[in-house]
Amino acid sequence: MKFCKKYQEYMQGQDKKLPGVGFKKLKKILKNCSSREAQSKEDVHGVLDIKTCPQLCSVCDGTFFPSLLKEMSDVVGCFNERAQKLLELHLASGFRKYFIWFKGKLQGSHVALIQEGKELVNYALINAVAIRKILKKYDKVHLSKQGQAFRSRAQSMHIEILQSPWLCELMAFHINLRETKAKSGMTPALFEGCYLTFNDGKPFLSCELFDSVKLDIDLTCSICLDTVFDPVSLTCGHIFCYMCACSAASVTIVNGLKAAEPKEKCPLCREAGVYEGFVHLDELSILLKRSCCEYWEQRLQTERAERVRQAKEHWESECRAFIGV
């Protein structure tokens, strides 16, 4: 079955009306573009010369890219919102959990949460593949690299769905549940495509995508060069230890990342203003704590000592400022 048909059947089979990529519509734009240019024929000495669409096609680019940009934004916005609500409910406890259920008018059980999480991961992955395929098709038709350039632009605008921290959290959510249920002897229908793997001692969060594409998320902090501890994701999509991120943003643990100046940049991609919308990866933290027990305990002791030191320095500085010393 061709991917276009598979994608349409998947989107039509969703119970809830979800935004998606107009795969068929975008293919039609490209097809019309190719057909229109193919009609510009010159018969020179009996040789048929068929002109191809130029690299910068004003007609095609004027409808193709704006349309795809809006659809990508809608898809990632919907995914982030639903994933955040689901994980907030899963991590909540006591009265707060019941309050969230009531406030969101959510129906169902724990199994329903698992199923929704599975559907969200599938939704993210199949849309990521659809976007990749349609941009590849664009470059093929135009003999250009404009599709690749557009994808880079989408990443800088934070509307690349594989860049979403909530996808990473959902993957960790499924692994955590699978391990918990396996220990308890319960085996509900969990998403089997997500794994925590170690390559030369370095951890990766892996997921098998549609169409045999594999997603690997590196869980090594590029600042301390160790497994991320108390991980956070910046708005650019890069993952760091919370304390390392605070150090990079020139703020103390006491003030936190929200106190970072807008001019502060990501240590990896050098994008500015990425700290304000950071996401604490709680599910990933739980997963790594279970999988790297000895390392986690050692790192916890080190972090506690550093937090105490920074807190002490902070309050000593505040006291000196208060008394005017």
Classify the secondary structure makeup into a structural class.
mainly alpha
Tell me the series of helices and strands, N- to C-terminal.
HHEEHHHHHEEEEEHEHH
What Rg, in angstroms, do the CA atoms define? 24 Å
Q: Percent of residues in helical segments?
A: 55-70%
Question: What is the end-to-end distance?
Answer: 75 Å
Q: Globular, elongated, flat, extended or rod-shaped: what is the shape?
A: globular
Strand content: 5-15%
User: Strand count, sense and closure of the main sheet?
Assistant: 3 strands, antiparallel
Tell me which oligomeric state these chains represent: single chain
Catalytic activity: S-ubiquitinyl-[E2 ubiquitin-conjugating enzyme]-L-cysteine + [acceptor protein]-L-lysine = [E2 ubiquitin-conjugating enzyme]-L-cysteine + N(6)-ubiquitinyl-[acceptor protein]-L-lysine
Organism: Hibiscus trionum
Pathway: Protein modification; protein ubiquitination
Keywords: Metal-binding, Transferase, Ubl conjugation pathway, Zinc, Zinc-finger
